[in-house]
Design goal:
It is a single chain. The protein is mainly α. Helices cover 81% and strands 0% of the residues. The chain is built from 9 helices and no strands. The protein starts with 10 loop residues before the first helix and ends in an 8-residue tail after the last helix.
């Protein structure tokens, strides 16, 4: 009796498996990043509407919580980059102009705010070296008054709001995710700005959980079907 040798996996099948893994990781990153932002906002010991003096006093008294919040922000930002690429490609494949502009604005807004100094970590380092709270307040006020800080911050506020709206509309028009999930994304960042101004931490967290749901559905579609782009041979 003879046996037929099993066929070794082809290069195409190996590439498909690798692509599937990359899709899954990007999808997880897309959903997890906003969840980490929500956690950071809940852990943060002060209200975003507090004065510099109140913030400095609170950070000095709760340095562990402040550092944990900073870690959540840092990891969430790193995860959002591949996650946004996946969601952006998915949205652009269905609605090229809206998806592209939404991705560009949201992404460059993220880059802009990442270029500004984190006063939380600056305060932690200052207090670790024995800097007084009064001096830290002066440093914070001086830093926040710089144009090189305010310009990218204002751009971030506008870009991440408009970018999220455009991405949500692109996903809504393309029927990639449920309509209600797309509307969560559309409404999330305007709510985020209002929540930061009001200083209500649970509302800030909610504004991040809303895109987490939308990105989760988009990531699921991305994992199952890819972006929908057809590669020319």
């Amino acid at each position: 009796m003879t046996t037929t040798p099993s066929r070794a996996p082809t290069a195409d099948s190996a590439a498909t498996a690798g692509t599937g893994t990359a899709r899954l990781l990007a999808a997880i990153a897309a959903a997890l990043a906003p969840v980490l932002f929500a956690a950071a906002s809940l852990v943060l010991p002060y209200d975003t509407s507090d004065s510099s003096k109140e913030i400095a006093r609170t950070i000095a008294a709760h340095q562990g919580a402040t550092e944990l919040s900073a870690w959540f922000w840092m990891v969430g930002t790193l995860l959002l980059v591949p996650g946004l690429v996946a969601v952006g490609l998915l949205a652009t494949a269905r609605s090229p102009k809206l998806g592209l502009w939404g991705s560009v604005l949201f992404g460059t807004g993220l880059i802009a705010v990442s270029m500004t100094p984190s006063l939380d970590t600056v305060a932690l380092g200052a207090f670790d070296k024995g800097v007084s709270q009064d001096v830290m307040v002066k440093v914070a006020d001086g830093t926040q008054g710089l144009a090189v800080v305010n310009a990218p911050l204002f751009y971030f506020i506008a870009a991440h709001v408009v970018g999220a709206i455009l991405l949500g509309v692109a996903l809504l028009r393309g029927r990639v995710i449920p309509a209600w999930a797309a509307w969560l994304l559309i409404l999330s960042m305007p709510l985020n700005v209002l929540a930061y101004i009001s200083g209500v931490a649970p509302l800030v967290a909610l504004s991040f959980l809303m895109p987490a749901i939308a990105f989760g559905y988009a990531g699921l579609a991305f994992t199952r079907h890819g972006t929908g782009w057809v590669r020319a041979e």
